[in-house]
Amino acid sequence: MSKKQKSAFMLGLSITLALPSAEVIAQNSADSVPEIPVEDFFSNTLYTDVVISPEGTYYAIKADAGDRDQLMVIRRSDNELTASFELGQYQRFSKINWVTDERFIFESRKRVGLWDEQEQPPNLYAINADGSHRRELFSWGVSGYSLLSMMPNDPDHIMINKYHYSDRGEAKAHRINVNSARSYYMGEQPPKADQLIADNDGNLRLSFAYEEDDEDAYGKGDLSIYFKPVTGGEWKKLELEGYEDGQTLNFYGFSPDNRYAYFGTDFESKVAEVYQFDTQTDNIERLTKNSSSDVLSPVLDVKGDIIGFDFMPDKIKRVYTDNSESTALMKNLDNAFPGQRVSITSSAKDGELAVVYVRSDTNPGSYFLFNTKTMKASFIAAPNKKLNPNQLAPMRPFTITARDGLELPGYITLPKGAEKGDKLPMIVNVHGGPHGPRDMWGFSAENQFFANRGYAVLQVNFRGSGGYGSEFLQAGYGEWGRSMQDDVTDATLWAIEQGYADPERICIYGGSYGGYSAMMGIAKEPDLYQCGVGYVGVYSLPLMYDAGDISRNQSGEKYLERVLGTDMEVLKANSPVNLVEKMKADILLVHGEKDVRVPIEHYNALTQALDRVNKPYQTFVKEDEGHGFQKEGNKFELYKKLETFFDKHIGE
After folding, report:
1. 59 vs 612: CA distance, rounded Å
2. Closest CA to 277 of 326, 329, 218, 237
3. Helix (H, G, I), strand (E, B) or coil at 465
4. pLDDT digits (tens, 9 = 90+) for 339-349
């Protein structure tokens, strides 16, 4: 940590506010919004995670150092930096958990691109608060792992699921000593478990086993669930009457007394609702109804217990399932920061001190230390303190009806002060994935940058996007370049009809699948878009089977067969490389030479096709980037390039 960074952190710690006010996260409104430097949007984020130790002595803080992460430890009593380290280029940290007040664990994995991991699974480490005694607890090799429990009643050990090739990938629970790294097998486990789950006290209580035969469609194998009653005894099989293979099923945690397990599933509804399973009586109760989006995540109180669940049909919708004092406390926090999403990310073991994370569409995020006895919150840090929330543009949710009657949710972000009817130049920003990810309400540096430059930004959750149930997700299977693309077109036409967009000044842009959609958009609708930008995009659907990390194993092959189909003539007909003759719009192609998700072969194939028909285009390629740019200098250069490109073709 530099002296400048360190002093900025300490200055933030001196700010204290009473809970009824949230003024610390916003500065005074300006009469007019200035042009904000590109660096203010895309500089490396100094604080991306803040985790308090069990006794409240330290913060473990993760920071983005460009092409790697940095971990720092700050002692709360005197704001002194006690440790700071990195693990090398492309190494990214996650799952920071304190084991004792002097030692914590974390994962590190190689991630070359913003959206890919180059197939590098995580390794597990432990380190002391002063930076000493760093030890690798688990290295992924012939065996893999996933973190199972912090074992709160055993400060010397954690528990993991261990997967070994000789066990055919079955999960076996092991304790690991966080000081010596010695591993111990734990008995009394159900057979053929793909995942074991422990309760709040570190006792094995649930297991999931999934089997998919060669003839089964992707995601349509058999799921078996076993549980152990809260009172103890033998493992029992859980029967979910009405559940069909392939439907959503996610486990979220246990009730504080470990009796109830919480699931999210859509086996009785179009979207994933929350259910409570009584491990003592085998009774299953549905806790939420009539939701219009899948359950997003559980809401935790100051002790880490589940007290509710978040949904995001458009903006955040919070449903509390508990009436305790902890819930009342959390509701007070919600009221203290109206219009924002408030989460407790970590807490001291006595529940007196908790780290609260607050963010919204116009707030890049702020961390506070909340004292449950004094009912005050002191400001810790902000990931991006240069941005003034009052100068940023709110996301406006909308829902449209596609040409075939399917309802499509989305968001439009207008420049600060702009309104419907202004007929602005517009960027259609198509999300990647495409199956599973979705556009969400929250802060986007990219969209805020575009809005600050005077552009409306349109985002639509086309069919195939996640978050709106299995039926909506699977409606996109086999529809790349067809109904999925029509959804993007219909949203663009809607924005024109509503007066948001000038029909003569529209560009389509996106990364990964969004890059594919951008090029398909200018091919299928040559008179609708004035320009298109493909960012690490897919440009040949047949090439998906031959290049990239998805097709390297049987599961990936089956996934591609499920979502793309196997008719090569259809795939070729819906590949931008075969549609270049139809493209009228100006083109910019952006790629990273180290991309393993969508290799540079896609970029090469499209540029060669454009060259054959003498179609001009611009390029921006970086040899040191992967699937999405993450180095600070490259990001600055990229968005300045985008700004120049958009200004030339659809600007004033």
Report:
1. 58
2. 237
3. coil
4. 999 999 999 99
**What CA–CA distance (Å, rounded) separates 187 from 568?**
50
Residue 377, phi then psi, degrees to nearest 5: -125, 130
Which residue, 200, 170, 153, is CA-closest to 54?
A: 153
Write down the pLDDT at residue 456: 98
Residue 18 has pLDDT above 70, yes or no: no
The CA distance from 471 to 272, in Å, is 11
What letter would DSSP give residue 631?
Answer: S
Give the lowest-confidence range in 7-11, 32-36, 571-575: 7-11
- Coil, strand or helix at 562: helix
Contacts 24+ apart (CB under 8 A), 82-87: 82/58, 82/129, 82/130, 82/131, 83/127, 83/128, 83/129, 83/130, 83/131, 84/1, 84/131, 85/127, 85/131, 85/134
DSSP H helices in 120-265: none
Residue 239 scores a pLDDT above 70: yes
Name which of 442, 395, 444, 450 is nearest 426 in CA terms.
450
What is the DSSP secondary-structure string of 9-67? HHHHHT-EEETT--GGG--PPPSSPPPPPHHHHHSPPS-SEEEE-TTS-EEEEEEE-SS
| Residue for token pair 């009172």 | 231
Other beta carbons less than 10 A from residue 3's beta carbon? 7
Instruction: Give the separation between CA 109 and CA 95, rounded to whole angstroms.
Output: 11
The residues facing 302 across adjacent strands are: none
Report d(CA 503, CA 529) in Å as an integer. Answer: 8
**CA 257 to CA 307: how far, in whole Å?**
13
Task: Report the alpha-carbon distance of residue 208 to residue 213 in Å, rounded.
Answer: 17
For range 355-383, the mean pLDDT: 94
What is the CB-side half-sphere exposure of residue 646 using CA atoms within 13 A? 25
CA distance 609 to 620: 17
- Can you read off the two tokens belonging to residue 614? 């003498």
Q: Out of 20-24, 293-297, 304-308, 458-462, which region has the weakest mean confidence (pLDDT)?
A: 20-24
What is the share, in percent, of the chain residues with pLDDT greater than 70? 94
For residues 371-377, give the mean pLDDT.
92
Express each pLDDT in 393-447 by its tens digit.
999 999 999 999 999 999 999 999 999 999 999 999 999 999 999 999 999 999 9
